[in-house]
Design brief:
By secondary structure, the chain is an alpha+beta fold. Helices cover 51% and strands 9% of the residues. The strands form two sheets. Strands 4-3-2-1-8 form a five-stranded antiparallel β-sheet, covered by helices on one side. The protein has a three-stranded antiparallel β-sheet with strand order 5-7-6. Keywords: DNA-binding, Membrane, Transmembrane, Transmembrane helix.
Length: 307
């Protein structure tokens, strides 16, 4: 009887109690690449695409440091315009949550400062011949994919955005920065006319000073964003997303800039031009998150924060 129970126990460990062959086992967990499943003592644990891919990559080389560059090459193909560090942090956070792990007291996933991550503990591998090819091919069933909703944020997530080549995204982002530069330079060039307009409409003279000051201060900001995009500055996307809320306030204020042209255009046209300008800061944020990857990418939109 004990021998029979031992055989059944081994069968359950290998098959996970579900008829699925597992390629990796560690601690209380089993991983099936073919089925895209992570189980704990036979119970299925929900894990989305990117955290699952990171787990497979780390299980291939337990005890070794997996760099951020290696992870980004697996999660995003070439030509994708996303905040890599942000997405990697989020994928690791989700993976740790699924494993019941903590960054401060790691049991499975250890952070290697300024380099990447390391999988801790022994890993038993079985039937790994197809694992390498499965890293990119795996995609969870549609029912298990995360669907962004208003419960998380009223802002768009990367999963909501279309697949777009980096070149197209960069051009659109640069055009928006050029538009704002045109507003600032045009306002500074016509300060006397703007002041006269404010006097005619009985507006507070301090508003004129705000126009002049913000235009002068935001010119170098736009120059930085243009240079960062052209030269693909490291962590530029993360820096922009961190500063986005502050920039949004200024951008929404400058959405009123068509009214500075009331000496030349009708009031109705100024209102019509203002409407798309209100959306412009949100468009810039979306462009920062947009990429060409075909897989779901909800992870990129998690809270910014270092592990």
């Amino acid at each position: 009887m004990e021998a029979l129970l031992s055989i059944l126990s081994i069968h359950w460990a290998i098959m996970g109690g579900s008829g699925t062959t597992f390629h990796y086992r560690f601690g209380e967990f089993e991983v099936s690449v073919e089925a895209g499943e992570l189980r704990r003592r036979g119970a299925l644990i929900k894990l989305h695409t990117q955290p699952f891919q990171v787990l497979l990559l780390m299980l291939k080389q337990p005890g070794e440091t997996v760099t951020r560059e290696e992870i980004s090459r697996v999660l995003w193909p070439d030509g994708v315009f996303v905040d890599f560090d942000h997405g990697i942090h989020s994928a690791i956070n989700r993976l740790r949550a699924a494993l019941g792990d903590q960054a401060a007291r790691p049991r499975y996933i250890e952070t290697v400062a300024r380099r990447g991550y390391r999988f801790l503990g022994p890993v038993e591998a079985k039937g790994t011949a197809t694992i390498t090819n499965s890293l990119r091919a795996y995609s969870p069933p549609a029912a298990e994919q995360e669907i962004p909703s208003l419960r998380r944020s009223i802002l768009a997530t990367q999963a909501d955005l279309p697949k777009t080549p980096q070149r197209v995204v960069s051009i659109l982002f640069l055009l928006l920065q050029g538009m704002y530069l045109g507003f600032y330079v045009g306002a500074l060039t016509n300060l006397d006319e703007i002041r006269q307009l404010f006097v005619e409409y009985g507006l507070d003279s301090r508003l004129w000073l705000i126009v002049m000051t913000t235009a002068a201060l935001l010119i170098p900001v736009r120059a930085f964003l243009i240079c960062g995009t052209l030269f693909r500055a490291p962590r530029m996307q993360e820096h922009y997303l961190r500063a986005w809320w502050a920039l949004m306030i200024f951008d929404c204020g400058w959405a009123l800039s068509p009214f500075l042209l009331l000496h030349h255009i009708q009031y109705g046209l100024a209102v019509a031009c203002m409407a798309p300008l209100v959306y412009a800061p949100f468009a810039q944020r979306s462009l920062m998150l947009m990429g060409a990857a075909s897989q779901p990418r909800p992870e990129v939109e998690a809270d910014l924060g270092l592990l």
